[in-house]
Specification:
Blueprint (H helix, E strand, L loop, with lengths): L1 E6 L7 H16 L2 E5 L4 H4 L4 E3 L29 H11 L4 E6 L1 H12 L4 E5 L15 H22 L2 E6 L6 H9 L4 E3 L5 E2 H13 L5 E6 L4 E2 L12 E6 L5 E3 L2 H13 L3 E5 L11 H20 L4 E6 L2 E6 H4 L8 H9 L3
Parallel strand pairs: 1-2, 1-4, 4-5, 5-14, 6-9, 6-13, 7-9, 8-10
Antiparallel strand pairs: 2-3, 11-12, 14-15
Helix pairs in contact: 1-9, 5-6, 6-11, 7-8
Bound molecules: 6-O-phosphono-beta-D-fructofuranose.
């Protein structure tokens, strides 16, 4: 069998663990070949953007962040004859099946191609952890640990200077990184897209805490959080964007809510306030043990599904078991932060 593998969308720690597992299991256990398709879906839109993934190529990559086969946010369904080009190039390469590693956008394309007859198995990846039908995506654990460590560092300087510190983390549609890193880092206030808030309420909570004798506060905010600046605007929350230009999947570039929040908090409370935006630091670097193991388990399970002929599936983590789920169902909706997590965070902001 000849299997193509591609990684699409934003990179994340653990992608190389998946690639390594797919190659090792395919070559050593199924006597199959693996072709790396470079730069996500772009590699199948352009003829010849591939690399043979022999055993040597995947040696020594387990601990490395990023993806050795590169990635892009190319959307074949936004390009002229995109679907046709992908199908034709796959045929020219003699690929029997594709293993597609990505988040909601990349796997959304995979689901459509599967409906068009392409033999595909999906692997869920994103630091945002917002893919439905899997308890965790790999990359998330590393991002949470990175953000937690940053919050710990910010904590000591906030304390020394009697400051409010605002830490902006990634999370476009959901606040998984904010809520888990915030809880782990002992944040006083956590703001997530799922729970739009009014800024007056945030300032009230900070003032209440300081009135109890604390002279510093830590606010963690997801980049996609929606905050109304005034009571009358409560229904008009919108994204704070860096750039109005949209990518091929229709997303604007987020970032900057931390700065806005810090300015407003200082103005309204009188407490000196600073902000940090963690940005891509959360996506880079070496994966945690959890992400290396999860990526490895996903890669092995994906190859097993290919060899069983079970296409149109995504491997997922359910409890501690790897379970195949329907790819179309997995991309039909996002997984939002559980109320339980939010209730925990509220105990520490009261
Ligand atoms: O991968 C998802 C994500 O981390 C989002 O949280 C964030 O908005 C986006 O990627 C930013 O990605 P890029 O800078 O690569 O466009």
């Amino acid at each position: 069998m000849k299997i193509g593998i591609l990684t699409g969308g934003g990179d994340c720690p653990g992608l190389n663990a998946v690639i390594r597992a797919v190659v090792r299991k395919s070559i050593l256990f199924y006597n199959s070949e693996v072709i790396g398709i470079l730069e996500g879906w772009r590699g199948l839109m352009v003829e010849g953007l591939t690399e043979d993934l022999v055993l040597d190529k995947v040696s020594g990559i387990l601990h490395r962040g990023g993806t050795i086969i590169k990635t892009s946010r190319t959307n074949p369904y936004k390009e002229k004859d995109g679907e046709k080009k992908v199908i034709e190039n796959k045929k020219k390469l003699g690929l029997d099946a594709l293993v597609v590693v990505g988040g909601e956008d990349t796997l959304g394309v995979a689901a459509k191609l599967h409906q068009a007859g392409v033999k595909i198995v999906g692997v869920p990846k994103t630091i945002d952890n917002d893919l439905a039908m899997t308890d965790y995506t790999f990359g998330f654990d590393t991002a949470v640990n990175t953000a937690m460590e940053a919050i710990d560092r910010v904590h000591t300087t906030a304390e020394s200077h009697n400051r409010v510190m605002v830490v902006e983390v990634m999370g476009r549609h959901t606040g998984w990184i904010a809520i888990e890193a915030g809880i782990a880092g002992g944040a006083d206030i956590i703001l997530i897209p799922e729970k739009p808030v009014n800024l007056d309420k945030v300032c009230e909570a900070i003032c209440k805490r300081h009135a109890r004798g604390k002279d510093f506060s830590i606010v963690v905010v997801a980049e996609g959080a929606k905050i109304a600046l005034h009571e009358e605007n409560h229904k008009k929350e919108s994204f704070i964007v860096q750039d109005e230009c949209k990518d091929a999947f229709g997303h604007v570039r987020l970032g900057g809510i931390g700065k806005l929040l810090a300015t407003e908090i200082e103005k309204r409370t009188g407490f000196e306030t600073r902000f940090v935006i963690l940005g891509h630091i959360q996506r880079g670097g070496t994966p945690t043990a959890f992400d290396r193991v999860l990526g490895t388990r996903f890669g092995i399970a994906a190859v097993d599904l290919v060899h069983k002929g079970e296409f149109g599936k995504m491997v997922s983590l359910q409890g501690n078991k790897i379970v195949p789920v329907d790819l179309t169902d997995a991309v039909a909706k996002l997984k939002y932060v559980d109320e339980e997590f939010y209730n925990i965070a509220e105990v520490f902001s009261a």
